[in-house]
Give the backbone structure.
Amino acid sequence: MQENIAVISLKNIRYNFAVFKKRLCAGTKFFAVVKADAYGHGAERVSETLEGLADGFVVTSVREGIALRASGVQGEILVLTPPIGLDDAFLAAAHGLTLTVCSVSALRFAAAGAEKDGKPVAVHIKVNTGMNRLGLCGAPLKKLFSLTERTDGVRVRGIYSHLYA
């Protein structure tokens, strides 16, 4: 049976990232998605290669974010999966990870994690633009924005969406 082999060029990954970043408007943040072991390319190696060029890194879970921190990644690390309990939120806060908030309960977990850790936690708000997996729109989104302004320990650093088309 034939085996498949992937040859990864970190030099080309960096070059391609730089080409796309140059095309963005001034001030636009550009994060590298390195979830699922950078899609099999090696999350730690890809992140190290893009450190200083990427404005941040995106992972699926708090566990993946902690692994990047342990490998020496200093940049912002956004966790796509919202916290589902106090442990997630506390570990994210303790490792300086940025949490996704897409519900009132996720906001409450983030705030509780920040309180337990004793320092604010950064969050990005997930907006639903049609993919319908996570995120809010309309009145519930407006309510969440209002709650974040009044929630101690939570600092909104950005918003994002998963564009489906």
About this structure: The beta strands are 31-33, 56-59, 76-79, 98-101, 121-126, 154-160.
